[in-house]
Design goal:
Strand content: 5-15%
Strand order of the largest sheet: 1-2-10-7-3
Largest sheet: 5 strands, mixed
Radius of gyration: 21 Å
Helix content: 40-55%
Distance between the termini: 12 Å
Mean pLDDT: 89
Shape: globular
Bound molecules: protoporphyrin IX containing FE
Structural class: alpha+beta
Number of strands: 14
Length: about 425
C-alpha cells in the first residue's frame, strides 16, 4: 500500500514537522487549564490582558509597543459553556469580521470572516462539496489508503512516533487529494500551507505562500472548469444555488482556509485522542474490545483536549454578555477549551473518560460558523483508530518513553507519541 503514496508526500526537503513547529512559534505551555479555571472562577465573562492570549508574554515595552497596546481593543474572555454558547449563537451582536484584519490578508475573503446574510449564502454553496456521498467516497478512496499507506511504513518496526509518522502527515495528504491537486504538487501544497499558517510570525512569508497557493489552485481550477472530475475543486467550480455561483476568488479563499482548518486541527485532535487513550490503557483496552465506543471516544478526546482552544469575535455595538457590559469594538476571546471543562456541565471535567454520557462540547464551535468539516474530521479519526487497533496488536506507549504530554496554548497537541507494538508483516 505504501507505494500508493507519492514520493513527494513526505513533503519538503526540510523537515516539515520542524518547520511547522517553528512556524507556530508558541512557546511550550503545558497546562493552560489552571489559568482558565482561575479566570472562570472570577466569572463567566472576564476582561483579560493580551498576555493571557500569549501565555504570559507581555507585549515588549517601549514607545511604539505602548502605542500598540493602547490601540488594541478591550479583550473579554467568554469562559463558561453558557457564555460561549451565547456568543456563538448570536452573530449579529458578536461579529466574525475581526478575522478580516488578522487572517484576511493571506486567506482572502473566506467564510470565516463573513457575517450574515453573506455568510450563509457562501456556506450553502461550499457545503455542496461536503455531502454524505462525498464523505463515503473520500473515506474509501482517500482517507483509508493514506492512513494505511503511512502505517505500512512502520508496521514491521514494532516502534514508531505516531505524531511524526502518522497524525502529522495524514490530514494534509487527505486534503490535497480531496481538493484534487496533482500528486506532483502535494509537497508544495504542504509546505505553502505551513508557511501560510506562519503569517502571525512572518508576514511576508505567509503572504508569499498565499500567492503561490493561489497560482496552484488557479491552474487546477482552470483545468476542472473545462473537464470536471470527482474532486472538491470540480464541485466548487460548478456549484450553483438560486442562480449564484462561486467566483474564483471565493474558491481560492475557501481552499486556502482548508489548509489550517482541515489539516492542522485534525492532526492535533487525533494526536490528543491517541494520547488520552495511550495514557489510560484501561480505556484503550475497553475500546479495543468494544468498537461501539469509538464515537464516544472521539467526542471525549475533542472535549478533553480540543486542538484549537479559542476563537474570536468582536462586538459591533455596546452589549451585555452573561450580565457583563461589553463596549462596542471589544474583542471577545471565545475560550472553547474552558467551556469544554466547565464544572457546571461536566463532572470531573479534567478527567479523560470515554464512558461519560454524551453532551455537546465546543471543540467544533457552535451556531452559524460551526465547523464545516466536522463530519470529515470525525471520519478521519475513526479510520485512524480502526487502522491502529486492527493493524498494530499490543499498541501501547513505548515503555521507554519519558514525559509524553500535550502542550500549547492556542493550538494544543503532543510533540511526540512514541509507541510500541508487535511487529507485523
Ligand atoms: C478536529 C478537527 C477540527 C476542529 C476541532 C475544527 C474546529 C473548528 C472551529 C472551532 C471552527 C469555528 C471557527 C470560528 O467560527 O471562528 C471551525 C470552522 C471551520 N472548519 Fe473546522 N475544525 C476541524 C476540522 C476541519 C476540517 C477537516 C475541515 C475541512 C476540511 C474544516 C473546515 C472548517 C471550515 C471551512 C470552517 C469555517 C466555517 C464557517 O465559518 O462557517 N474543519 N472549525
Amino acid at each position: 500500500m505504501a507505494e500508493q503514496l507519492s514520493q513527494t508526500d513526505a513533503a519538503s526537503a526540510a523537515d516539515p514537522f520542524e518547520d511547522f513547529n517553528r512556524a507556530q512559534g508558541q512557546g511550550s505551555i503545558r497546562d493552560p487549564y489552571a489559568r482558565f479555571d482561575e479566570l472562570r472562577r472570577r466569572g463567566p465573562v472576564v476582561k483579560i490582558e493580551p498576555a493571557d492570549l500569549t501565555g504570559g508574554q507581555s507585549l515588549p515595552q517601549g514607545g511604539s509597543h505602548q502605542t500598540l497596546r493602547a490601540a488594541l481593543p478591550d479583550i473579554y474572555s467568554a469562559l463558561s459553556f453558557e457564555a460561549v454558547s451565547e456568543v456563538l449563537r448570536d452573530g449579529r451582536r458578536f461579529s466574525s469580521k475581526s478575522y478580516s484584519f488578522t487572517m484576511g490578508p493571506v486567506m482572502g475573503h473566506s467564510i470565516l470572516e463573513m457575517d450574515e446574510p453573506e455568510h450563509s449564502r457562501y456556506r450553502s454553496l461550499l457545503q455542496m462539496a461536503f455531502t454524505k456521498r462525498a464523505l463515503e467516497r473520500w473515506e474509501h478512496d482517500v482517507v483509508r489508503p493514506v492512513v494505511e499507506g503511512l502505517i505500512d511504513r512502520f508496521r514491521g518496526r514494532g516502534r514508531a512516533d505516531l505524531v511524526r509518522e502518522l497524525t502529522f502527515p495524514f490530514p494534509v495528504s487527505v486534503i490535497a487529494r480531496m481538493i484534487g491537486l496533482p500528486a506532483e504538487d502535494h509537497a508544495d501544497f504542504h509546505r505553502w500551507a505551513i508557511e501560510l499558517i506562519s503569517v502571525g510570525f512572518d508576514f511576508p512569508r505567509g503572504l508569499a505562500a498565499s500567492k503561490k497557493l493561489r497560482e496552484l489552485f488557479a491552474r487546477v481550477l482552470a483545468e476542472r472548469r473545462s473537464e470536471p472530475r470527482e474532486d472538491l475543486i470540480s464541485v466548487l467550480a460548478h456549484a450553483e444555488l438560486d442562480g449564484t455561483r462561486l467566483d474564483d476568488e471565493a474558491i481560492f479563499a475557501f481552499l486556502r482556509l482548508l489548509a489550517p482548518a482541515g489539516a492542522e486541527t485534525t492532526y492535533r485532535s487525533s494526536s490528543n485522542l491517541l494520547f488520552g487513550l495511550l495514557s489510560h490503557p484501561d480505556q484503550l483496552e475497553a475500546l479495543r474490545r468494544d468498537r461501539s465506543l469509538t464515537d464516544a471516544a472521539i467526542e471525549e478526546g475533542l472535549r478533553w483536549e480540543p486542538p484549537l482552544t479559542g476563537i474570536v469575535r468582536m462586538t459591533v455595538a455596546d452589549t451585555e454578555l452573561c450580565g457583563v457590559p461589553v463596549p462596542a469594538g471589544s474583542m471577545i476571546h471565545v475560550n472553547l477549551a474552558a467551556a469544554n471543562r466547565d464544572p457546571s456541565r461536566w463532572e470531573r471535567p479534567e478527567a479523560f473518560d470515554i464512558h461519560r454520557p454524551a453532551r455537546q462540547h465546543m471543540a467544533f464551535a457552535f451556531g452559524a460558523h460551526r465547523c464545516l468539516g466536522m463530519h470529515l474530521a470525525r471520519m478521519e479519526t475513526r479510520v485512524v483508530l480502526d487502522a491502529l487497533l486492527d493493524g498494530l496488536p499490543g499498541l501501547r506507549l513505548d515503555p521507554e518513553a519519558r514525559d509524553v504530554h500535550v502542550t500549547g496554548l492556542i493550538f494544543r497537541s503532543p510533540l511526540a507519541l512514541p509507541v510500541a507494538f508487535e511487529p507485523g508483516a
